[in-house]
Specification:
Number of helices: 13
Shape: globular
Length: 451
């Protein structure tokens, strides 16, 4: 066979300084050429035993030109080109088929694996100190800006990851505004705030009479975003049984409303966001692997505020609308801001600065916060003894999320205290699946302390 790459592409963990870009390989699992692999770098690849083939295999049971791989909509499909013994995908003989990540292709006596991998693509930091609504000068921030600048003009699907409040929504808006689709709509779907019974109609739309109460035809988010950008926030909350339907729309770029068999073609860019580790959810069968690969064409990790405290002066000026806002703070107050752990990240900072402005406390050393303040950025805040009061000035989702997070942390800490740090006993007392209990501990930085 023709060698296209001397060494396989290693999987490299993503860091804030890198974009994680999907690469595709064909790995030969069985047959005379077993152990070889070929990176898919062309739009069309012919596989056969002819020396003229792009991938030439020493398998006597395949035809000279056996099948062809074609790049379609950022993915690949396989097409049999009149072979003698046929082409099978995942055990099914096909004339033409789309390839899912991990698909097994059998031709003759050879089995090939369609394998997505991830390769860290190093990008030099941006020289700009802003990208859309996002501002910052530290290295980690400018590296994120560089990645966003690079992918904004493409139609690549982007997955934004990071803790709550790190600015995933602002990053999605900035991507849209910097793209060639900026004059078209940007539609936002918060997968966590829509009832599971309604989310399908919200995404795909519905025809009149499709379900009880559907008194008129209604386009879904995909149709509304046609020509523009669809932002799927909290995509980890998408029901598992709905994920194959989302995957189909992303691959075929067409949608069918509920109650209709008529496909509608789409031209849009998809941006997704999550605060959870989707790879872990995939390993626990809580998120589909093929959908994970499909939305992770480019993954951008947004750093937490505690890792970019150099940006606090610029962020303070940005949110307060004053160029020298930081200089107006007392030294004690600046030190307090710099040493805080910032569990709520940028969102928490914005709320803190709003309170300072409204209460006229810029020069004071004590901040008007409910709980958790005073912990250093190297030490996560301890569980609150009581839940904080609801801040009715905040949006509903933000206030609810803050309350739930505070409850979860307090509840988990008290369980661990009662069980003497024994995680299995604490999980039994809470009547929670142990793996889910581990996830909650990691979410609130309690896991390592109780190992």
């Amino acid at each position: 066979m023709k060698r296209r790459c001397e060494e396989p592409t290693d999987v490299i963990p993503c860091a804030p300084s890198q974009a994680t870009v999907r690469k595709l390989n064909l790995v030969i699992l069985e047959g005379p050429d077993a152990g070889s692999r070929m990176p898919l770098e062309k739009d069309s690849i012919v596989i056969g035993k002819s020396p003229a083939s792009d991938l030439c295999l020493a398998d006597s049971a395949i035809s000279r030109s056996h099948c062809e791989l074609l790049r379609v909509h950022e993915g690949y499909m396989i097409r049999d080109v009149g072979s003698t013994n046929g082409t099978q995908v995942d055990g099914i003989r096909v004339k033409e088929a789309f390839l899912r990540p991990g698909a097994r292709i059998q031709i003759g006596k050879s089995v090939l694996l369609f394998q997505p991998v991830y390769q860290a693509d190093s990008i030099l930091p941006s020289r700009a100190d802003s990208f859309g609504e996002m501002v910052g000068t530290c290295l980690a921030t400018r590296q994120v800006f560089a990645i966003l600048e690079r992918v904004a003009q493409t139609d690549a699907t982007v997955l934004l990851t990071g803790e709550t409040g790190t600015g995933k929504g602002a990053a999605a808006r900035a991507l849209h505004q910097a793209s060639h689709r900026s004059s078209e709509p940007m539609v936002v779907v918060d997968c966590g705030s829509v009832s599971p019974s309604l989310i399908q109609g919200e995404l795909f739309g519905a025809e009149k009479g499709a379900y009880t109460g559907a008194d008129r035809a209604r386009p879904g988010a995909f149709e509304q975003a046609d020509g523009g950008t669809l932002f799927l926030d909290e995509i980890d909350e998408l029901p598992l049984d709905l994920q194959p339907k989302l995957l189909r729309v992303l691959e075929e770029r067409e949608v069918r409303r509920l109650g209709s068999d008529k496909p509608r073609k789409l031209d849009l860019r998809v941006v997704a966001a999550t605060k959870l580790d989707l790879a872990r959810l995939v390993s626990e069968n809580r998120f589909r692997e093929d959908l994970f690969f499909r939305i992770s064409v480019v993954r951008v990790d947004l750093p937490p505020l505690r890792d970019r405290t150099e940006d606090l002066p610029l962020l303070s000026s940005h949110f307060l609308g004053e160029r020298d806002a930081w200089e107006g703070f007392s030294p004690a107050l600046r030190e307090q801001l710099l040493s805080h752990y910032w569990p709520g990240n940028i969102r928490e900072l914005r709320n803190v600065l709003d309170r300072l402005r409204y209460l006229g406390m810029e020069g004071e050393a004590e901040l008007p916060l409910d709980s958790g303040f005073g912990q250093t950025k190297d030490e996560p805040p301890q569980a609150a003894q009581s839940l904080p009061n609801v801040d009715f000035a905040r949006p509903f989702k933000d206030a609810k999320e803050s309350l739930v997070d505070a409850f979860e942390r307090a509840y988990l800490q008290r369980l661990l205290d009662r069980s003497g740090g024994k995680i299995a006993a604490a999980a039994r007392e809470a009547r929670l699946n142990r793996q889910y209990f581990y996830d909650l501990l990691r979410k609130h930085d309690l896991y390592d302390k109780n190992r």
